[in-house]
Amino acid sequence: MAAAPACLCYLSQNPTISNLNLSLFKPNVLSLRSFFHSPFPSLSQKHYLRLRPCKCSSTAPLSTTTYEFSDGSSEVELRLNIGGLDIRSSRDILVDTNDTSLAIRVLRPGSPITLIETNPLFDRIKSSETIWYIDDDQLVVNFKKQDPDLKWPDIMESWESLTAGSSQLLQGTSIYLVGDSTEINQNVAQELATGLGYTPLSTKELLEAYTKQTVDSWLLAEGSDSVAEAESAVLESISSHARAVVATLGGKHGAAGRSDKWQHLYAGFTVWLSQTEALDEDSAREETDNNVKDGIISYTNSDVVVKLQGWDPAYTKNVAQACLSALKQLILSDKKLPGKKSLYIRLGCRGDWPNIKPPGWDPSSEGNATLGTQ
């Protein structure tokens, strides 16, 4: 039976909701299992950004201000310009934090002004060790990071910070998108590749370019077994590629839809883009758990699963962001994963993932038992 994916991310259809909690991202995704370490020197530089508050519980207008962000070795610092807000003492400021969120407000009778409210932060902090003070026209907030080795591109988790920070996490490891919809796989792969600076690849396009016929006509002429075998050969040829985002064929006629064809998919991080009718994260998590227990759907071999309630190409970036958020959580839970993927490739993608056998191991000696985890 397949192991449960490490991170689940659920996206609802409501594009007006903006909340990420554990692996829950709205709009448009639920995340269930939501890795050559290289320095990231640019992250130690200060970034000057126009502040766009993420969320506001106040009825008063939001303050439009700027902030400076910098990352040290064990802490991060946020500086917000507060000049012109008529702040007379520290009692006029409320800084509210927990391990994953931050809210800063200027207190006004009946109408507090929210300077920033973000959930989640880029990573976890030691909220009890947060300190802040006023320095001339700036509010300075220092946070202790729970993971001092992780460089933060920005204070908040966003598409921009995830794409900027993913190089230190992925370390060149490719990403494979699987699921029942070839169209969704292709759209999200293109968005991810653009954001990460990776090469976008589509097994559908590669197959059609090679055979000079459409996959649909191929299915009619030779059947799904032939298509799955051909896609498996394509996956083998690109399994040693680094920095690629690969969109696979959707449905049972694709290699990813068959447990015995996952040998080369394990070379990268696999994301299952799963459409669901679940209305909330708990339901989506239960649905995924049942999929794993049933052992019927080969997509449960994936590293992470992103649940989509409906599909609209307009929200492709939201889905891509949820994929990166889930992958970030997975990699931070085991920082050896990129190196392990690299070792798996160097040993020939023999199908022994995740329990990699010593060099010289012969898969046929075990009847290919590890090639599928149905």
TrEMBL record:
SUPFAM superfamilies: HSP20-like chaperones. The keyword Lipoprotein does not apply. It comes from the Eukaryota. Residues 62-163 form the CS domain. GO terms for molecular function: kinase activity. InterPro entries: CS_dom, HSP20-like_chaperone, P-loop_NTPase, Shikimate/glucono_kinase. Transmembrane segments: none annotated. Belongs to the shikimate kinase family. This is Shikimate kinase. It comes from Cajanus cajan (Pigeon pea). The lineage of its organism: Eukaryota, Viridiplantae, Streptophyta, Embryophyta, Tracheophyta.
